Amino acid sequence: MYYFINGGGREFDHLHELNNRNWFIENGIKTLLVIPLAIKEEHWQERWNNPTQLFDGSPDVTSITTYTDREEAINRINSADAIYFPGGSQETLIRRLVDEMHLLETIKSATNLKAIGGGSAGMMAMGESVLVGASTIKRVDPGLNLIPETIFDSHFTKHSRLKRLKKSLVDLTNYLGYGIDENTGAILNDQYEIMKIIGPGTLTKIGKNREISVYDQNTLFN
Q1: Residue 178: what are its φ and ψ, rounded to 5°?
Q2: Given the DSSP bridges, would you call strands 60-63 and 139-142 parallel, antiparallel or unpaired?
């Protein structure tokens, strides 16, 4: 299993970059399922609502929305090689996916999945815990736990979020923290290790000993 995540901004550009690098093909991903449940209904972008326009058939793109019949949603999850959660509201995504559509366990038990990804709020919801709040932390809620003992923050450098990420980790003693800049993505392997940074910004990692490391496309520096 791979994880492809980004800190928000140009999510389409990030997915196109992965596609241009043949990352989907190299990893046997023929069907990408987009789950835009974090986006409020009135703000759905046409491409997310009709994601077959995203790539020219490689990979094939399907979607699940709040209008999708649950049985059909389960079929699409079980047929997908990869899943992507676009940004929006992490609270909305978790409520719809877990409490209303009851699809989280289906995702976790899907045997065909080779990769799961998310951008901004979609990425933040993937951790075992999730930050709720914009400029300040309102609370820390349970996340989707697709990546255990991890908490993510997005739009990281632009909004100076290192302090709040460090604060969120005070009581999460065994967790890793990841802060990712806008227009910047990362690929993690099945051990949740950073394999690659894509884009102009940085990924900041706070380790279990609370050491801070910063990654960009070319360098690692403390």
Answers
A1: -125, 130
A2: unpaired
Supply the CATH number for residue 131's domain.
3.40.50.880
Strand-pair partners of 61: 32
Domain ranges, residue 161: 2-221
CA distance 121 to 203: 16
Distance (Å, whole) CA 216 – CA 207: 17
Domain count, the chain: 1
Taking the C-alpha atoms of residue 92 and residue 154, their distance in angstroms, rounded to an integer, is 16
Specify which residues 98 forms β-bridges with.
Answer: none
CB 32 within 8 A of CB 60: yes
pTM recorded for the entire structure: 0.93
CB neighbours of 108 closer than 8 A, spacing ≥ 6? 146
Integer Cα distance of 108 and 14 in angstroms:
24
Q: Are 68 and 103 in contact (CB under 8 A)?
A: no
Label residue 137 left, alpha or beta by phi (over 0 means left) and psi (-120 to 50 means alpha): beta
* pLDDT tens by residue, 11-25: 888 898 899 889 999
